[in-house]
User: Fold this.
Amino acid sequence: MLSEFLDSLFVSSLDAFGAFAIFGKVITFDVAWYFSLVIAIALGGLITTVANLATTVYLHRGLSHKALTFSKPAHGAFRTVLWLTTGIRPRQWVAVHRKHHAHTDTPDDPHSPAIHGWWNVQVKNYVMYRRVARDEANTERFARDLSPDRLDKALFDHALLGLGTGIAVLVVLFGPVVAVIAAAVHLSYYIAANSAVNAIGHHFGRRPYDNSATNLQWLAFLTAGEGFHNNHHAAPTSAKLAHRWYEIDLGWLLIKPMTWLRLAQVRLDELRLVSSSRRSTQPG
Ligand SMILES: [Zn+2]
Ligand SMILES: [Zn+2]
Assistant:
């Protein structure tokens, strides 16, 4: 009796162990797979956040509007980040953007929802950008102050080399699968979010100042502050895009410590509204 009982216990425990082992294998496999996917998506989001910060702080507030100036190391870091994560040539981006401010919501605006419809700008912003970015006469006219230097000619003007190097770094650090997923997440997120500034940010949202752009906090979170586009059109030379206590501008949260470290210098302390801009509602 006792030996039968012990035998049955032994078999049961073996069964239980086997089941656990199989269960354990399934669990281990699933966890590994999901873990890699989560890491890849989080990594893609992190890369876009870094690229968005470089876009808004360096390309937009710094180079395009001269709202702040940078030390040499900061220049070098931003150029390298943009080259590796976007392949954008700064002087082309600046020229397209200055043309947008010079001709906002007219047929000469490179990407106006008022002319093309917001959805068209959302899905075709990349094509619209490239068309004007490749127009050398436009770059010469709007970005004459940013002539290419030796490093531009050797490295930074070669977009595919930059993006390829960026992906190669990811492959070395995280392996090919995570690298490719992270790169796909980053490029989709970066293009969609920055298109949204030109499309949604000139169509939906609040207009505390009297201009065609809008303010959207959720878009500001996704673009490191660019979602406060109405504020920006009202005061383009301001390094700070949040104008009210409850508005959160991630770009400004980077600029502040950069000024403490003397990596950047803000040109204007006060908010200087453009002459055509008046408040359509009271802020705050
Ligand atoms: Zn705009
Ligand atoms: Zn601007």
In short: Residues 5-23 have pLDDT under 50 and may be disordered. The CA atoms of residues 113 and 141 lie 24 Å apart. The two ends are 84 Å apart (CA to CA). The chain has one domain: 34-266.
